[in-house]
Amino acid sequence: MIVDISKWKHVFKLDPDREISDEALDRLCRSGTDGIMVGGSTGVTFDNTVDLLARIRQYEVPCVLEVSNQEAIVPGFDLFLIPVVLNANDPQWVVGQHHEALKEYGAIMNWDEIIPEGYIILNGDAAAAKLTSARTDVDAKDVAAYARMADKLFKMPLVYVEYSGAFGDMELVRRTRGVLEHARLFYGGGIDTIEKAQQAAEAADTIVVGNIIYSDLERALQTVNFDRTGR
Ligand code: 1GP
Q: Assembly state and interactors (predicted)?
């Protein structure tokens, strides 16, 4: 399937390392979301990723893999999103893992299916921030510089402002989107009500909903229904 993420406004992110019932998955896949993103910071393996993909593939919803480690690259997703953590202090997460993967698979990769994501991790308590030693004590000017780096310098089609586990500063998100010329701005973190979905959707191009799926499915499902008319 050809998937055009430039049309996406809402995404559910599912973690292969967390349990989800068939009924919950059914409701998420039929919710009207624009896509399912599969990914997580820890415990993601080939086996749990392939299991989840097979279950999601019973539905028509587009399904993309956000690659977090080389061992968990499973063929068969619509697209493969490759995070490049622009504010990581550990270069493993900027170019290190990528270099290893390209050494192994570079000659056989289908580049039409691969999209780099310029990641900016802003919640210092998030697992991803700890894993990557992200520099999270940054202000809006710093974030704008990272965003321009992704958009203008590296020509990345996607910038991801990641507050995983906390609802971020929507003014900062709005300003960050304002400096992007070509890249699409994804925002994820702490969206657990329709009101927060609305605020985030007014600041970013695409909103990503994760954790609330596992703690309150009903509220998670409501986040799809924000008012899209103003955008
Ligand atoms: C996580 O950005 C996503 O990578 C979504 O964040 O889990 O806080 O919803 P939450």
A: Homodimer.
Report which ligand 1 atom has the smallest distance to the Cα of 166.
8
**Residues with a CB atom less than 6 Å from ligand 1:** 13, 162, 164-165, 188-191, 208-212
Q: Whose CA is nearest to atom 2 of ligand 1?
A: 188
What is the full DSSP assignment across 19-59? Answer: ---HHHHHHHHTS--SEEEE--SSS--HHHHHHHHHHHTTS
What separation in Å is there between the alpha carbon of 116 and the centre of ligand 1?
18
Total structural domains within the chain: 1
Q: Which pTM value belongs to this model?
A: 0.96
Helices (H) and strands (E) in the chain, counts: 9, 8
Domain that holds residue 83: 5-223
149-195: per-residue pLDDT in tens? 999 999 999 999 999 999 999 999 999 999 999 999 999 999 999 99
How many whole angstroms from 162 Cα to the centroid of ligand 1?
A: 7
